[in-house]
Each structure stands twice: as structure tokens, then as C-alpha cells.
Amino acid sequence: MSPKILSTTAVLLGLVTVIPASAADISWSTGPTFNGPNGHLGILTNGSLVEAINLAGSTGASLTVDPSGLNITFSTVDSPFLSGVWSLAGTGGNNDAAWGTILNTFEWIPESTPTFSNFLSNLTVGHQYQLQLFTARSDAFGDRVESFSDGAGHVSDAVRGDSYSSIVGNFTADALTQTLQPIVSNNLHPFLNAYVLRDVSPVPEPETYAMLLAGLGLLGFMARRRKEKI
Prior knowledge:
Strand content: 25-35%
Helix content: 10-25%
Shape: globular
Strand order of the largest sheet: 1-11-8-14-2-4-3
Distance between the termini: 41 Å
Order of helices and strands: HEEEEEHEEEEEEEEEH
Structural class: alpha+beta
Largest sheet: 7 strands, mixed
Number of strands: 14
CATH topology of the largest domain: Jelly Rolls
Number of helices: 3
CATH architecture of the largest domain: Sandwich
């Protein structure tokens, strides 16, 4: 093998070791409820919105929840991870039409504990994220209980579908993707209505940011002075 090929191979191997390949551990908590006339106010709004997804079994028009208030637009998608769709889950008694539409439909899969290894994608390594999951149904099977795992043994508390309690997971991305594993009581049909992903990474204080810019400016000045002397 020529030295050039060896050098190229070494560079590629180096890249493989630099790019993280594992998913992060998720810290779980039970979030706000999201049913009732103002149930849409249970959607968390801290940090900056990355994506809001309505799982509807097909790709369609986006839905904006509470346009004069929260103003969160959900993309309507057909998830590659969930094969079935149910459109009679109930609206949760919400007075926001878009949120009621989102809650009335969920996608599901007839497996016990499927693992979605690339459920979230295009993450930024080192950023802190908040994932809010919405699993809700007030139909005849509202007593089904569901929890979620990161696939590494960290499992959320279980919530009933008719409790309309959201599940919130916080993690610091150590890869470009994140694993999600739904777990349902009696191993029956994991389901998901919608989810919201937010970037909650700390924002530098203005003074810190100014000091950073000043430091970069000083480094640039020193580099120019050194170049002039040379």
C-alpha cells in the first residue's frame, strides 16, 4: 500500500474516532398535563424550538397551535418508526382546534419494545436538548400505560393515555442522533401523538460574550504584530 493511501486511511480513521457514534443518556420527568380547554398551554416553551412534530400517518399541512399566543407550528409527518395510525383518540376537550386535531390522531406500532435508534437527527453535539412527548387517548383504551427509555436503561415514569400527562426528557447530545424506546403495559402497541424538541443550551451572558469578542480581537492583533515583525 502506498504512503499516500496509508495517509488517507489514517485521516479517515481519525474522523471516525472524532465523530461520536453513541446516543446520550436521557434524564426523565413527568411534564405538564395538556388536556382541557387550555391544554395547549402545557406545551413547554423554554429555550429555542428545534422542531414540533404531529404524527398523523401521512404528510400534510402544518398546524399552528394558539397562533395569537404560543404560536407553535407542528409539521405533519408520517413517521418511519411507527407503522399504524389511529384517528379517534379524542381531542382532550381543548378549545384550540389545531391542538385538538393533533391529539385526536396518533401513530403506533404492533411491537413490544421497539428501539428507534435514529428517532431524533441533525443534533448538535454538546448542545442541551429538551424532548417533550405527548401520548394521549380518551377512547376505550385510555387505560394503556406507556413510558419511554433512551435505550440505555434510563426509563421515564409511566403515564396513562387518558391522564394527558406529558413526558419530558433532557439530554446533552453526544451524537448527531438520539435513540428512543417506547414501552407500553402488556406489550401492546406503543403509540405517540406528537413531540416537541427544544434546544435549552445556556446562552452566554452579554458580559461574557463581550469578553470573548475582546479576547479574539486581542489574539488577532497579536498575530498581525508578529507577522509584521517577521
